[in-house]
Amino acid sequence: MQITVSGQQVEVTEPLKSYASEKIGRLQRHFDHMTTGNVVLHVEKTHHMAEATIYAKGATLHADATGENMYAAIDALADKLDRQVLKHKEKTTNHRTSDAPLKKQLI
């Protein structure tokens, strides 16, 4: 998955960029059909915020999170996206395939 990390009103350092890429990249362990991801980091006064948009097969997932520092905001963002990816994966799986063996047992 191609991940782009950018900053608004904040300089994105290399450790911060690699941390965000690593956290968002872990989402592929749940769902392989993700193509690209955009992460935007910004600061408003004392609030550190992270926003992400993930483009997956059949859906566009978006989340944002705030934290007391940028690493905490990225962690919260990754947790929110993780839940969204699992929910999307559940929706896309075909639930009817498990009923076929049950019908054969009843006959």
TrEMBL record:
<dbReference type="InterPro" id="IPR036567">
    <property type="entry name" value="RHF-like"/>
</dbReference>
<dbReference type="InterPro" id="IPR050574">
    <property type="entry name" value="HPF/YfiA_ribosome-assoc"/>
</dbReference>
<comment type="similarity">
    <text>Belongs to the HPF/YfiA ribosome-associated protein family. Short HPF subfamily.</text>
</comment>
<keyword id="KW-0810">Translation regulation</keyword>
<dbReference type="InterPro" id="IPR003489">
    <property type="entry name" value="RHF/RaiA"/>
</dbReference>
<dbReference type="GO" id="GO:0045900">
    <property type="term" value="P:negative regulation of translational elongation"/>
</dbReference>
<dbReference type="GO" id="GO:0022627">
    <property type="term" value="C:cytosolic small ribosomal subunit"/>
</dbReference>
<protein>
    <recommendedName>
        <fullName>Ribosome hibernation promoting factor</fullName>
    </recommendedName>
</protein>
<comment type="subunit">
    <text>Associates exclusively with 100S ribosomes, which are dimers of 70S ribosomes.</text>
</comment>
<dbReference type="GO" id="GO:0043024">
    <property type="term" value="F:ribosomal small subunit binding"/>
</dbReference>
<dbReference type="Pfam" id="PF02482">
    <property type="entry name" value="Ribosomal_S30AE"/>
</dbReference>
